[in-house]
Amino acid sequence: MKRLLMTSPVAVAVFWIGIYLVITLLPLLVLLFYAPAESRGFWIEFSVALGFIGLAMMALQFALTARINRVEASYGVDIILQFHRYTSIVAFGLILIHPLILFITAPETRQLLNLLEAPWRARYAVASTTALILLVITSIWRKPLKIPYEPWRILHGILAVAIVAFGLAHALGVSYYLSLFWKSVLWSAIALLALWLLIYVRIIKPWFMVKKPYLVEEVIPQRGNVWTLALRSHGHPGMQFEPGQFAWITLGISPYGMREHPFSMSSSAVSPDRLEFSIKALGDFTKRIKDITPGTKAYLDGPYGVFTTSLYWDSAGFILIAGGIGITPLMSMLLTAAERHDDRPFLLIYSSKTRSQITFYEELEELKTQLDLKIVHVLRKPPEDWQGETGYVDRELLEKYLPPHRGSRHYFICAAPVMMDAVEAALYELEVPVTHVHMEHFNLV
Q1: Rg (alpha carbons) of the chain, rounded to whole number
Q2: If 228 and its partner were Cys, which of 135, 278, 297, 393 is the partner (CB 3.0–4.6 Å)?
Q3: Are residues 238 and 265 in the same domain?
């Protein structure tokens, strides 16, 4: 963390973007060396270039989802996953355009779609493209298709491997551009790197997790249909994390089972041997949290995230804006600040549906005696005797409570996407510097 603070975030981010572009374009640039003497026309060459770029981008998706700490610390998992989604769609478009151009400019290539008579290189291309189409459909429309999260993750990994493997087999089978041995070696190295990352995520990382187990100590009911899962480290000192970060949890089964879920820590970062995760009962997995028995084994992969006040030690104070269960990482920030005797001012604007659904209500009131903390509760359905704010967190409400010198604070927002978008737009209109606004989506998938 100290190393991150001493390095310019912009420089680090630009560095990794540069690495991504180099890896994406290098295989294509290499093809220019000792290029085939016979040109096949602009459109065919252009089509092939799109195909190679798309294949390289798909191979790099394994790196984006490998949770590499150095990369993740530069952007945060939230941004990396968004980038993963968008680059997948771009790669999808490039790979689809590749054969379409061929079919239009060289109609004789359409006969390759006759899989019974087509050569294997064509069959590999069709297999890779089909896997890519299935991956995109099942990812974008997973919820409408009612595909459970855990089976989807397994299917997603299988399809990703199939795309790259069949795509590379197609390129090697064509051999027109990869006729030289060293060019084939380069592309094979890219595929092997993707395979290594897959092995690291699915085998090596779970092996390290097995060495550091946790035990469920208790499950604490909270307001708003929320349950706090308290874990105690077993045979090791625990996990050092910063307030606002999160971890992937595997409960009751081996970490090789690929049934892990991301949750923010809600406890203080001062006590790494006892970690608490406050989880709202919304889906099949989260609704079972209340039934977890003490003594159940748990495994953690983390910590992850740059959504933390620890990165901004020079800030004059903090504005925390939460909606519903979005209070979880902000609660960790407040508890940690109290234990570290932070004397800076904190303003918490907390939106809830009703008064009975204000998670951590009593704990937050207690924190007001330990911190320079002001809390503004905003209820969408207030009782008749409610004297506080009502409705939604909009520009008018923010303007009422934000300090005059808005650039002296850092702003942390965690809520449902609709609320986050509205708050972000309002802060922009109120001339809050965009570099001081930090957001965390609590639904990563």
Answers
A1: 25
A2: 278
A3: yes
Q: Which domain holds residue 220?
A: 214-304
Q: Compute the average pLDDT of residues 229-250.
A: 93
Task: Show which of 262, 285, 304 is a domain's final residue.
Answer: 304
Kindly report, residue by residue over 379-414, the tens digit of the pLDDT. Answer: 999 998 898 999 999 999 999 999 988 888 999 999
Among 159-168, 356-365, 376-385, 434-443, the minimum mean pLDDT is found in 434-443
Q: What's the total number of domains in the chain?
A: 3
How far is the C-alpha of 317 from the C-alpha of 406, rounded, in Å?
10
Q: What is the pLDDT of residues 279-293, one digit of tens each?
A: 998 877 888 899 999
Let me know if residue 209 belongs to a domain: no
Residue 188 has pLDDT above 70, yes or no: yes
Bond prior to 303 in cis (omega within 30° of 0): yes
Helices marked H in 175-252: 181-199, 205-210
The answer on pLDDT for 93 being more than 50 is yes
Under a CB-based contact definition with an 8 Å cutoff, are residues 227 and 91 in contact? no
Clarify whether residues 335 and 377 are in a common domain: yes
Separation between Cα atoms, residue 257 and residue 437, nearest integer Å: 37
The model carries a pTM of 0.77
Same domain, residue pair 327 and 420: yes
Please indicate, yes or no, if residue 309 is contained in any of the structural domains: no
Nearest CA among 276, 363, 281 for reference residue 324 = 281
pLDDT of residue 297: 95
Of the candidates 304, 303, 315, 394, which has an alpha carbon nearest to the alpha carbon of residue 349? 394
Distance CA 260, CA 251 (A): 8
Q: Residue 169 is encoded by which pair of tokens?
A: 């087999």
- 58, 91 contact by CB (below 8 A): yes
Same domain, 18 and 137: yes
pLDDT reading at 58 higher than 60: yes
Quick one: which of 211, 208, 414 has its CA closest to 318?
414
Within the chain, how many helices (H) and strands (E) appear? 13, 12
Are 238 and 332 members of one domain? no
Query: Look-up: residue for tokens 């089509």?
Result: 47
Considering the domain architecture, whether residues 197 and 292 belong to the same structural domain is answered as: no
